[in-house]
Amino acid sequence: MADPHQFFDDTSSAPSRGYGGQPSPGGMGYSSPSASHEAAFLADPMSNMAMAYGSSLAAQGKQLVDKNIDRFIPVTKLKYYFAVDTVYVGKKLGLLVFPYLHQDWEVQYQQDTPVAPRFDINAPDLYIPAMAFITYILVAGLALGTQDRFSPDLLGLQASSALAWLTLEVVAILLSLYLVTVNTDLTTIDLVAFLGYKYVGMIGGVLVGLLFGKIGYYLVLGWCCVSIFVFMIRTLRLKILAQAAAEGVPVRGARNQLRMYLTMAVAAAQPLLMYWLTFHLVR
């Protein structure tokens, strides 16, 4: 029995509270409420089932999103169009400016799969069109700045206008191919790549125009317009007309004539758009 005159209890006989005793998991001799609730949650079979069901739904949602994206934009194939190197970029730029001496325009295949662009100069790529588009916007901003006409709104209008025309081109070509019933291996990304090559000539024309005035602009842009016309004719005819020949379509048949007109129209639209998107940048 405790002494009524003792101020403190004698705790030396309690091993759990001595210095040699083990502390409780919660620290300071108290149990952790959060640890106990977490253990109870994990021990609950309904909670485990809910977690498993949520993970299953997340995985199914990811697969559904990836499937729908690949239906319109084959993201998994984009790596092919960016498989370039410095040698390929240099040769491709030379081909875009001087396509007249190039003879072999066939795309190389390996086991029914086109080889990467860095191994074939005729293969379409997205690296040059993407970089050329960004450079074109920067050069347009430089041209507007030298004329004291620069503003973020005007530069944004320049970029959106170029994108709108590119989108309109792709849609028009796909619709035309559908109307004339052309079975071709041209994809939407291929069209974006081929149509994006015109920005290279546009950059050259604007830069020379800033240095030497309108005369230099018209000379360089005129050369690049003729070059891109020849490039598109020789490239698209293998994609559209060669497929028609493989299907046994007569050379002078009505459908083949429509395909030839379509190829000519796509090639002729490139110089017109090159002039339309750059003439106001040089004064």
TrEMBL record:
Transmembrane: present as a keyword of the record?
Answer: yes
Q: Where in the cell is it found?
A: Endoplasmic reticulum membrane; Golgi apparatus membrane
TM region positions: 126-145, 157-179, 191-212, 218-237, 258-277
Q: Which UniProt keywords apply?
A: Endoplasmic reticulum, Golgi apparatus, Membrane, Protein transport, Transmembrane, Transmembrane helix, Transport
Residues spanning the signal sequence:
none
Q: Region labeled Disordered — which residues?
A: 1-32
Listed Pfam families = YIF1
Q: How does it sit in the membrane?
A: Multi-pass membrane protein
The UniProt regions of compositional bias labelled Gly residues, in chain numbering, are 18-29
First-listed, main subcellular location of the protein, grouped into a coarse class:
endoplasmic reticulum
Instruction: Please describe what this protein does.
Output: Has a role in transport between endoplasmic reticulum and Golgi.
The record's comment on protein family reads: Belongs to the YIF1 family.
Under which name does UniProt file this protein? Protein YIF1
